[in-house]
UniProtKB/TrEMBL annotation:
This is CFA46 protein. It comes from the Eukaryota. It comes from Circaetus pectoralis (black-chested snake-eagle). InterPro entries: CFAP46 (IPR039586). GO terms for biological process: axoneme assembly; cilium movement involved in cell motility.
Length: 154
């Protein structure tokens, strides 16, 4: 919320989305947001792909999405329990597709042009710092995604 308020005068007036602590998005809402966006930000717990139905995602065509930022891979006791319970019904191959590299490949195949994503588990605080760096460099300063990722790597 702080970042939305801080950058509201820039592009954020055109943003639409769902704040997950208010409610969990339905599959239809995920699909609508993904197919109608030029940029997509996921800032949440566990793996992004654990929130999306795989068979629906691979059937999607989302070439209008120029940039997808996945600030995921944060684990809490509650999120780990939810993932463990939902993972019981998933095959080993399905769970493998939820890993960061495989997620990036699937999103690329659906038409997403650039993907910035975590590679390993992190904390909420670290993701908040990444989001601040991304927002400042992409929105305020106007750096390219490559320049911004280079700054994140430092």
């Amino acid at each position: 919320k702080e970042i939305l308020e801080k950058y509201h005068y820039l592009f954020t007036r055109q943003w639409e989305g769902i704040i997950g602590n208010i409610r969990v998005p339905s599959q239809a809402e995920w699909e609508q947001l993904l197919t109608n966006c030029s940029a997509f930000l996921f800032y949440g717990m566990e793996r992004f792909m654990s929130h999306i139905l795989l068979n629906r995602l691979v059937a999607m065509n989302i070439p209008k999405c120029h940039l997808m930022i996945l600030l995921d891979l944060v684990r809490s006791k509650q999120s780990y329990q939810r993932i463990t319970n939902s993972g019981i019904h998933k095959s080993y191959l399905r769970l493998g597709i939820e890993r960061p590299t495989e997620t990036a490949m699937l999103l690329s195949l659906t038409g997403v042009r650039s993907i910035i994503a975590n590679q390993w588990y992190t904390t909420l605080q670290e993701n908040a710092e990444r989001l601040e760096i991304l927002s400042e460099n992409l929105l305020s300063i106007g750096r390219t995604t490559g320049q911004t990722v280079h700054i994140l790597q430092k």
